[in-house]
């Protein structure tokens, strides 16, 4: 008795002579192949368009002259390419005041971000790893402060700084920006998950003090969370408009947000003054470059900090 054997059909992943091997599909932990969702894909494309289209418009508009902004479509290049002349105009207008505004913004954002990160790290670590009287009540007050919008606190903050004689000084922008309740909450959640209590006990057994344990053992573990808070604080201070607007009067102390708004206001008055639309748009493009560089340089720490803070809480 003979049995007829059917020819073996090649599988989809089997190598074919003359063709490069096809890598196997990644499978989830349960062994099932990842499913593709059309709805999620559409939502992600819509979200990407929502965030990228304004940036694309800003880049394209920065290449146009004042007249080219009104005679061409928003997402189309004009026949006159004026990007480099616009940037040169931004840096030389009003005796180079834009450079002064840029340096002010760098100082305000850097000092505020570093200060807010250190303060949030110290306080978050203390709330996460120490028990002290009134700790729960104090932390509840801090959580309540997260819910209060910063614009609601602007006028009381101005009155306090005016009474202390600190208005129209760099401290009027830096000191309020150092206080970051959300950063404190994020660092507390991160410290709870990232630092094991046995690490603290081992340090105490070896005779280390509490500050030495924090500085030499825990600070390196908290680094991803600190970078996350640093970036949040940096962006918040860099883009802050209302606080410098009410605190500062001297033009040499203004940050980019308020300075560019003054140019925009001068261009929109329509009283026969010079049109500054291309200068304002090109200045806005230049002002975003430092933030993009900071995110590209620190994004791996930022992502790991956000993931740990979201999962281990």
TrEMBL record:
GO-annotated biological processes: transmembrane transport
tRNA-binding keyword on record: no
Location within or outside the cell: Cell membrane
Gene Ontology CC entries for this record: plasma membrane
Annotated signal sequence range: none
Disordered: annotated segments: 1-33
Superkingdom as given in the UniProt entry: Bacteria
Keywords carried by this UniProt record: Cell membrane, Membrane, Transmembrane, Transmembrane helix, Transport
Membrane topology value: Multi-pass membrane protein
InterPro entries reported in the protein's UniProt record: MetI-like, MetI-like_sf
Membrane-crossing segments per the record: 37-60, 101-125, 137-161, 173-192, 213-235, 241-263, 275-298
The keyword Transmembrane is assigned to this record: yes
Pfam families per record: BPD_transp_1 (PF00528)
Residues of the ABC transmembrane type-1 domain: 102-298
PANTHER family assigned to the protein according to its UniProt record, in alphabetical order: ABC TRANSPORTER PERMEASE PROTEIN MG189-RELATED, ABC TRANSPORTER PERMEASE PROTEIN MG189-RELATED-RELATED
Similarity field: Belongs to the binding-protein-dependent transport system permease family.
Protein name per the record: Sugar ABC transporter permease
Source organism phylogeny: Bacteria, Bacillati, Actinomycetota, Actinomycetes, Micrococcales
